[in-house]
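Need a sequence for this fold. Nothing fancy.
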């Protein structure tokens, strides 16, 4: 029904920047709120940021506020995560996800991308 594909991950030095993209497909894609999550080895998957498709509401985990920016481009059915001032603790696999409701919890998101690796060296 809804398929999500992330891109833009890679290796960057601390203090650098990356922009992740999440391309969506599906006839009802615009109905979904979207979010970014991340998971480091041995850690639980955690919420990073979320956005309504209209962009009317934004939310970030405290650890990325002021450094990360979530956005969307409706014409391209794509959302983005601009990641600035990256830190080694940002190293993780980053996932985009879609949900019909508005929430931070992982279980609220029904559709998930395959993930993209972000590695930040010190």
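Here you go.
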């Amino acid at each position: 029904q809804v398929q999500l594909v992330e891109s833009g991950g890679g290796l960057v030095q601390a203090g650098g920047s990356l922009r992740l993209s999440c391309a969506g497909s599906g006839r009802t894609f615009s109905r979904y709120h979207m979010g970014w999550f991340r998971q480091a080895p041995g850690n639980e998957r955690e919420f990073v940021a979320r956005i309504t498709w209209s962009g009317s509401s934004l939310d970030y985990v405290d650890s990325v506020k002021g450094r990360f920016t979530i956005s969307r481009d409706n014409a391209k059915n794509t959302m983005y995560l601009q990641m600035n001032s990256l830190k080694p603790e940002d190293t993780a696999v980053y996932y985009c996800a879609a949900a019909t409701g508005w929430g931070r919890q992982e279980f609220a998101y029904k559709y998930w991308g395959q993930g993209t690796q972000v590695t930040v060296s010190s």
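For context: The chain has a mean pLDDT of 94.
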